[in-house]
Amino acid sequence: MKNPREIIISPLFTEKSTQAQAIQNAYTFKVSINANKIEIKKAIERVFSVDVIDVNTIRMNGKPKTLGRYKGRRPHWKKAIVTVKSGQSIADFEI
Question: Which residues fall within 8 angstroms of residue 85, CB to CB, at 6 or more apart?
Answer without folding.
Answer: 25, 50, 51, 52, 53
